[in-house]
Structures are given as C-alpha cells and as structure tokens.
Amino acid sequence: MEQFNNVSIIKKANTYQDGKVSSRTVLFEDGTKKTLGIMLPGEYEFSTDLKEEMDIVAGHLEYKLPGEDWKEINGSGVFYVPANEKFQLKVYSVVDYCCSYLAE
C-alpha cells in the first residue's frame, strides 16, 4: 500500500535512541495503528508489546530476532517481530519504515 486514506495522525513525534529513531503514529478508522518513521545509522535494541510487521520502505539494515541469525534488508523488505520480545538492528544507511501493530 503506497498511500493511507481516511486516517488521523498524531502530531507529536515518537523519538527513541537519543533522537536517532523517530516516527509518527497513524490511526485508522477501524482502530488499527501504524507508525511511519526514520532510523539513522546506528545499533539499536527494541522491545515489543504487540506483534509487529516491520515494512522497510528504503534503506540498509540487518535485524536479529530472538533465537535467529542476523538477516539483511538492502532496499526494501518486511519482517515480523513476535509480541513481548526484543529485537536488534544494525542500521547502515537512513531507513524509512512503516511499523504495523498486529492483533494475535
């Protein structure tokens, strides 16, 4: 999906990792939520409450999910993070991403 229609956007940015990761929250009429963000180069660890779909729109990174080896995305790609887990990122260039929060 290239464009989201009929949504609300929360104006205040979510910032993480000393401002090197930022996003905006997009709320849909059906109650679902996504964030659209940018990650600057660096190494990060995040934790989840809900299952997440990480849609990498552009950029170069490696990600590591619990119990798995490092995997690379260079350009675009998607990966899923289970609920209540931590995952690691090595970001090599500016990454443009869309995170969807999924019901189990």
From TrEMBL:
Pfam families in the cross-refs: Ppnp
Q: Which GO terms describe its cellular component?
A: cytosol
Which superkingdom is the protein from? Bacteria
Catalytic reactions on record: uridine + phosphate = alpha-D-ribose 1-phosphate + uracil; guanosine + phosphate = alpha-D-ribose 1-phosphate + guanine; a purine D-ribonucleoside + phosphate = a purine nucleobase + alpha-D-ribose 1-phosphate; thymidine + phosphate = 2-deoxy-alpha-D-ribose 1-phosphate + thymine
Sorted keywords for this record are:
Glycosyltransferase, Transferase
Q: Which SUPFAM superfamilies match?
A: RmlC-like cupins
Query: Which GO terms of the molecular function aspect are on file?
Result: guanosine phosphorylase activity; purine-nucleoside phosphorylase activity; thymidine phosphorylase activity; uridine phosphorylase activity
- Which EC number(s) does the record attach to this protein? 2.4.2.1, 2.4.2.2
Q: Which InterPro entries does the record cross-reference, listed alphabetically?
A: Ppnp, RmlC-like_jellyroll, RmlC_Cupin_sf
Which CDD domains does the record cross-reference, listed alphabetically?
Answer: cupin_PpnP-like
Q: What does this protein do?
A: Catalyzes the phosphorolysis of diverse nucleosides, yielding D-ribose 1-phosphate and the respective free bases. Can use uridine, adenosine, guanosine, cytidine, thymidine, inosine and xanthosine as substrates. Also catalyzes the reverse reactions.
The record's comment on protein family reads: Belongs to the nucleoside phosphorylase PpnP family.
Database matches in HAMAP family: Nucleos_phosphorylase_PpnP
Question: Per its UniProt record, what PANTHER family does this chain match?
Answer: PYRIMIDINE/PURINE NUCLEOSIDE PHOSPHORYLASE, PYRIMIDINE_PURINE NUCLEOSIDE PHOSPHORYLASE
Q: What is the protein name stated in its UniProt record? A: Pyrimidine/purine nucleoside phosphorylase
Gene source species: Litchfieldia salsa
Tell me the gene name.
ppnP
